[in-house]
Amino acid sequence: MAGAGVDALVLRPSPDFRFLGGREGPYLVVTGDAVAETAEPARLVPEGARRVGVDPEMRVRELFGLAVEAELVPASAVLAPLRLRKEPYEIEAVARAVAAAEGVLGQARELAWFGAGERTMARRLRLLLVESGCEEVLSLRVAAGEHTARPAHPPGERVINPGDALLVSVCGRWDGYCAEVARVFAVAEPPEDFEAMYSVVTAAHRAGLSVMRPGVPVAAVSRAVGEVIDGSGYGRFAAAHAGRGIGLGHDEGPRPGEDTVLAAGMTFCLEPAIYVPDLFGARVADVVVCTDGGPLALGTSPHSLTVLDR
Questions:
Q1: How many CB atoms lie within 10 A of CB 300?
Q2: Which CATH code for domain 88-308?
Q3: φ and ψ at 286, to 5 degrees?
Q4: 3-state class of 305 per DSSP?
Q5: What domain of life (predicted)?
Q6: pLDDT tens-digit profile of 113-141?
Q7: Mean pLDDT of each 10-residue bin along the chain, 310 residues long
């Protein structure tokens, strides 16, 4: 903390809170010589503290209630660099979360999709997530047909019909650690020209994966993905980013827009996507860990286009 000019940290239940061992809360206070959970954090902030790092998830009323005479700064300035590289036990936890998420998508392939609505299928997937032990569903996407071309489409009443492309993604937290998996299906048969576009997304994924090794800037992953999509002619339809870090939080460092250099132990959700307005889209998301020997995908689910027969 001293290196960041911060005299104390005040955290609420969040990824940072869990990273430092917080359990019950409601707050965790970290000073130069102590770590303690308390309901009255201001009492534990050292007298004369000039800068206090606060949890980025703290609510406005909590910040006002803190009532300390110090500059409040994001605790992430101290903790984000420490969370970039995962310990072996953390990688194992992320791998278990990935296995659970993939298990849900595996079950999704066996569901009856024909004639059901997006929202109905999303509810079924949510139940499967809960049954898998998911502590918190962070995002759940079911998009059919032209809705696959909308990056943030919430499941609606659209009926899923034969000939539709189908984009399904699940993101949740298991035993404190997050995972996301996204796959593309075709209902009965893929739409015209869809397979060609989808092949570009999977090729972009392989390109991004191929450059993930220690010492490589995270931006190089985005460039590798972008070069494949640009070269296919779909460049103007590419997603704005190719991935982000994942671990205790579902969206953390390393991020492509930062100057971070990959190192062993970093976990990354690689998620290239193409969205062609009013037509269709495709996104493939997998969690990958950077190791001394290169990239290691934590999941085993194939990227081949699955055709649903019911």
A1: 9
A2: 3.90.230.10
A3: -140, 150
A4: coil
A5: Bacteria
A6: 999 999 999 999 999 999 999 999 999 99
A7: 86 95 92 92 91 94 89 93 96 98 96 96 98 97 97 95 97 97 96 97 98 96 96 96 96 87 97 97 98 96 92
Both tokens of residue 178? 């997050």
- Residue 59 to residues 62, 65, 237, Cα–Cα distance (Å): 5, 10, 36
Q: What is the CATH number of domain 2-83?
A: 3.40.350.10
Question: What is the per-residue DSSP string for 150-214?
Answer: -TTPPP-SPBP-TT-EEEEEEEEEETTEEEEEEEEEEESSPPTTHHHHHHHHHHHHHHHHHT-ST
Between the CA atoms of 80, 84, 89 and 95, what dihedral angle is there, to the nearest 10 degrees? 110
Which pTM value belongs to this model? Answer: 0.93
Please report, to the nearest 10 degrees, the dihedral formed by the alpha carbons of residues 117, 122, 123, 129 taken in order.
Answer: 160
Domain extent listing, the chain: 2-83, 88-308
Write out the two tokens for 207.
């390109």
Nearest to 214 by CA among 85, 123, 304, 116: 85
Q: What pLDDT does residue 239 have?
A: 96
Which residue, chain included where needed, has tokens 């569901």? Answer: 111
Query: 227-254, pLDDT tens digit by residue?
Result: 999 999 999 999 999 999 999 999 999 9
Pairwise CA distance, residues 278 & 281, whole Å: 9
Q: What is the pLDDT of residue 172?
A: 98
The pLDDT value recorded for residue 132 is 98
- Residue 156: phi and psi, rounded to 5, are -125, -155
Token duo for residue 67: 């009532």
